[in-house]
């Protein structure tokens, strides 16, 4: 039993709120309809019976009352009165309407009846008879359960039993009660029609109320379901964003740690470049400043000039190398420039520095990016073209940019011999990877015998 209850509760909870209301509300309104319908039909039945009985009683009383003697003085009816009653009750419209007639005395004696065998008999007064002697018209429809009503039971047609008080004309006191049974076939049809009409009205009102409330509840349920679906979608989207943010945070942390190490390597490389290049040339020039040719007064002017020219040349080479290192470190003013202009600037600088040619392919319009993204793009193109010049002999150098599915991509390629990215990703490429990934971008390397291609992808959906 407990399992059945639990199974029912589980299945009930699976239903939507609208279906739960429809079932529970339907059962509740059906119960209310039955209660209200029974009460209304009971009231209608009593009212119809009471009104019909009053009308019939008034008619019968108007016909019978003039035939009766003074009931206070007469304990029995004379033969002439009985004959007059027989003639009146057996003839005309009244005879067709009345299936039976009795005249009662207060003590339960039958003074007159169509069934002659009942005249003079005494019965225990029933409740209806007592009510009638109290001055009330009492009526019952098709209830023939009294001892004196055996004859009426055998008639086989619906009967309206009416107890009508017979009053004394001058005092108004009830001196007798007439009990008669009216043939009620037409009355039954009228009563049934009234009862059916009342049931239809109650059922219609209940159905209309259920339909109206169900419509409101179903609309509210659809609204709740739509909002719940939207909320679940938002929660799922938020969870995805939280997961993505966590992944990006971890990537940024890793990129930050690697960037710190790479910066140290950059500083060591810059120090090495300065030490092995300009510093050596300056040291050479300093040594040549102590050359005997400059200090020997016997040296010729041509020798001194040649030595000075050599020192000047050495210092010029040192300055040139220092400028080259500075040009690689110092950025041009690109914060306010468009992305397309930055790409053209990086390509032009490379062509000027290396005296080589680069193929540049740009769409008609590129999205605007922030300063960090612009710097990253410039450094990417600069380092990619430097690698193409040094390792790919400057063959088939190309830069291409475009947008796809809310993403900006930039590629740098060459037709050199290529390299193995898994083994020989140098300091420059590693630094670019960390720079691009730190701003949420993606860095890809592809290399083979037919050349090398570097590509970065940046999201532009949330960029200003």
TrEMBL record:
One of its GO terms (molecular function) is kinase activity. The chain crosses the membrane at residues 21-40, 196-218. The keyword Ubl conjugation does not apply. The keyword Ribonucleoprotein does not apply. Signal peptide: none annotated. Residues 268-330 form the Signal transduction histidine kinase subgroup 3 dimerisation and phosphoacceptor domain. Keywords: ATP-binding, Coiled coil, Kinase, Membrane, Nucleotide-binding, Phosphoprotein, Transferase, Transmembrane, Transmembrane helix, Two-component regulatory system. This is histidine kinase. It comes from Mesorhizobium qingshengii.
């Amino acid at each position: 039993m407990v399992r059945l209850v639990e199974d029912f509760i589980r299945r009930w909870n699976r239903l939507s709120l609208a279906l739960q209301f429809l079932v529970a509300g339907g059962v509740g309104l059906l119960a209310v309809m039955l209660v209200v319908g029974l009460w209304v039909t009971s009231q209608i039945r009593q009212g119809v019976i009471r009104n019909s009985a009053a009308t019939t009683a008034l008619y019968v009383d108007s016909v019978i009352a003039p035939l009766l003697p003074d009931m206070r003085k007469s304990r029995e009816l004379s033969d002439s009165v009985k004959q007059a009653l027989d003639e009146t009750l057996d003839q005309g419209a009244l005879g067709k309407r009345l299936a039976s007639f009795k005249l009662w005395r207060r003590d339960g004696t039958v003074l007159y009846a169509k069934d002659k065998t009942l005249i003079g008999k005494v019965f225990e007064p029933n409740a209806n008879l007592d009510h009638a002697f109290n001055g009330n018209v009492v009526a019952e429809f098709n209830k023939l359960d009294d001892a004196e009503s055996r004859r009426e039971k055998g008639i086989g047609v619906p009967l309206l039993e009416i107890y009508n008080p017979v009053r004394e004309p001058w005092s108004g006191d009830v001196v007798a009660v007439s009990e008669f049974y009216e043939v009620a076939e037409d009355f039954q049809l009228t009563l049934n029609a009234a009862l059916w009409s009342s049931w239809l009205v109650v059922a219609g009102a209940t159905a209309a109320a259920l339909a109206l409330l169900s419509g409101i509840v179903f609309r509210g349920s659809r609204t709740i379901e739509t909002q719940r679906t939207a909320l679940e979608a938002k929660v799922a989207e938020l969870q995805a964003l939280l997961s993505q943010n966590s992944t990006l945070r971890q990537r940024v942390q890793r990129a930050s740690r690697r960037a710190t190490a790479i910066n140290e390597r950059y500083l060591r490389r810059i120090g090495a470049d300065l030490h092995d290049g300009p510093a050596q040339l300056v040291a050479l020039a300093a040594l040549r400043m102590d050359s005997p040719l400059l200090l020997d007064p016997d040296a010729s002017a041509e020798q001194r000039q040649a030595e000075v020219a050599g020192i000047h040349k050495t210092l010029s080479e040192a300055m040139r190398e220092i400028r080259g290192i500075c040009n690689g470190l110092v950025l041009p003013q690109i914060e306010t420039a468009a992305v397309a202009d930055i790409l053209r600037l990086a390509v032009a600088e490379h062509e000027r520095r290396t005296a080589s040619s680069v193929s540049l392919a740009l769409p008609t319009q590129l999205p605007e990016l922030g300063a960090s993204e612009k710097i990253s793009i410039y450094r990417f193109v600069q380092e990619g073209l430097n690698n193409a010049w040094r390792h790919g002999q400057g063959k088939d150098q190309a830069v291409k940019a475009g947008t796809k599915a809310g993403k900006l991509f930039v590629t740098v390629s060459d037709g050199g011999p290529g390299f193995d990215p898994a083994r020989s990703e140098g300091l420059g490429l590693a630094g670019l990877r960390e720079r691009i990934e730190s701003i949420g971008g993606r860095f890809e390397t592809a290399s083979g015998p037919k050349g090398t291609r570097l590509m970065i992808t940046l999201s532009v959906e949330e960029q200003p």
